[in-house]
Design goal:
About 40% of the residues lie in helices and about 15% in strands. It is of the alpha/beta class.
Length: about 375
C-alpha cells in the first residue's frame, strides 16, 4: 500500500548552473518525492537525495506546487525548455491520477509560453495529449519515455509499477503521429540483462518503428548504500547467477556508483553503432531546439553534441565540450549578436579559431555543417 503524505515545499523549480546537453534542461522540478514505479535500479533511493521513508511506498506530494510555480516561473527571463520531471519522482506516477499536479503545471506553463520536455515511464501522459499538443504548436514540446528492457522477466522485475514497454511505445506512436516530437531514454542499460547487442537492437528497432525522434542511452550506476543494497537483493532473488558478475563490475564504484573502467565506453559504442544503422539520432536533434532556447545556449548545445559525436567517431571532442561550458559562463549576449561581431567571434576563454568559426556559422547562418555531417541529421 502506498502512503501519500502532503507537504508544503519551500521551492519547486530547480535551476541548474549549465544547461544539460542531454535533456535540454536548465530548469526542472520534482512535483512528487518518491515514486510508485519503484524501479529496482533507481538511484532516487540513494541517501544523497534524502527521500524519506520506504522508496516506492511513501510518496510526498507537494500540495503547494502550483502556487509556488506561479511565483517562480515569471522570474525566468530567458528562452528555455522547462523539464517536467525529476530524479526522485515520475510526474506521471499513479499519484498524479488523484492530485493532478502535472496537469495543472502544464496548464500554467502553457500560459507562460515555455517549451517543455516531459520524461516518464507511464502511458498516463496520454491523458494530457490535448494540452501537450497545444504547447507544442505554441512553443514546442518533447515527450520522452524511459525504457530499460523489452524482456518481460527483466522489466517486470525492475519496473514493477511502470507501464509495460509495449504501452510506452504505443504512446510514442500516438504523439509522433500527431507531430509531437518524442524520444526514448534507454537508461539504464542493465548489465548482463539488457546491454547485449540483441537487447539493444530490440529497443532501437522498436523505437524507430514507433516514430521516436531520438534515443539517449547510458549504463547503470549503483551507489553504495540503499540503492545498491536494494538492487542486489532483487538480483539475488531473481537472477542469482549474476551476483558475482555484479560484484566484480561494481567493485570500485566510488561515490558515483560507476561500473568498472571501460564498461560504459563499450556499451556506448555498441548502442551508437546500432542507432546509426537504424538512422536514429543519439542526441536531441538541432531542429527540435533551434530558436526555442537562447541563442547562447543553442550554440553551447551544438558544441557539446559535436564533442560527443567526435568521441563516438574515435576522435577527441573535449575541446568542444569545454567551449560549450565556456560560452555558457561568458557574459556575451548573442541575442544582440555580440558573440559574433563584424570582425568575427569575440572569443570567450577556451574558444579558438576553429570553434570560433563554427560559432559564427551558427549565429549568422543559423545552421552548422559539421553538426549535420557528424550527427547524420
Amino acid at each position: 500500500m502506498v502512503n501519500y503524505t502532503p507537504i508544503n515545499a519551500k521551492t519547486i523549480l530547480t535551476k541548474h548552473r549549465f544547461m544539460d546537453d542531454w535533456f535540454l534542461s536548465k530548469y526542472g522540478m520534482n512535483l512528487y518525492r518518491g515514486c510508485e514505479h519503484a524501479c529496482g535500479y533507481c538511484d532516487g533511493r540513494a541517501e544523497k537525495y534524502r527521500v524519506e521513508g520506504e522508496f516506492g511506498e511513501d510518496v510526498y506530494v507537494k500540495v503547494n506546487a502550483i502556487e509556488l510555480l506561479k511565483r517562480e516561473i515569471p522570474k525566468i527571463k530567458e528562452k528555455t525548455f522547462i523539464f517536467v520531471g525529476g530524479g526522485v519522482g515520475d510526474s506521471y506516477q499513479p499519484a498524479e491520477k488523484k492530485f493532478r499536479l502535472t496537469r495543472r503545471t502544464l496548464e500554467l506553463l502553457k500560459g507562460f509560453k515555455f517549451p517543455i520536455h516531459i520524461l516518464t515511464k507511464s502511458s498516463m501522459v496520454e491523458r494530457d495529449f490535448d494540452i501537450i499538443g497545444d504547447i507544442n504548436e505554441q512553443n514546442g514540446a518533447i515527450v520522452s519515455f524511459s525504457i530499460s528492457s523489452l524482456a518481460d522477466d527483466v522489466w517486470k522485475t525492475f519496473e514493477p509499477g511502470a507501464s509495460p514497454p509495449a504501452e510506452r511505445f504505443k504512446s510514442i506512436e500516438k504523439f509522433s503521429d500527431a507531430g509531437i516530437p518524442t524520444g526514448v531514454m534507454f537508461i539504464p542499460q542493465i548489465p548482463f540483462l539488457s546491454d547485449d547487442k540483441d537487447s539493444i537492437r530490440d529497443v532501437v528497432k522498436a523505437s524507430r518503428e514507433a516514430g521516436a525522434d531520438f534515443i539517449l542511452y547510458g549504463g547503470m550506476t549503483l551507489k553504495e548504500g540503499r540503492q545498491k543494497e536494494h538492487f542486489m537483493r532483487i538480483l539475488k532473488e531473481k537472477f542469482p547467477y549474476l551476483e558475482d558478475k555484479y560484484r566484480g563490475l561494481y567493485k570500485n564504484s566510488g561515490m558515483w556508483g560507476s561500473a568498472a573502467q571501460g564498461y560504459y565506453s563499450r556499451i556506448n559504442r555498441i548502442t551508437y553503432d546500432i542507432c546509426r544503422e537504424y538512422k536514429i539520432p543519439t542526441r536531441i536533434p538541432y531542429k527540435l531546439f533551434k530558436d526555442r532556447i537562447e541563442l547562447k545556449y543553442e550554440v553551447a548545445m551544438i558544441l557539446a553534441h559535436i564533442g560527443y559525436f567526435l568521441e563516438m567517431h574515435g576522435k577527441s571532442g573535449g575541446a568542444y565540450k569545454k567551449a560549450s561550458i565556456s560560452i555558457q559562463k561568458s557574459p556575451f549576449d548573442v541575442r544582440q549578436k555580440t558573440l559574433a561581431g563584424e570582425g568575427g567571434l569575440r572569443k570567450p576563454p577556451g574558444v579558438g579559431k576553429v570553434i570560433g568559426g563554427i560559432v559564427d556559422e551558427i549565429v549568422k547562418e543559423r545552421r552548422c555543417r559539421l553538426y549535420g555531417e557528424l550527427s547524420g541529421c
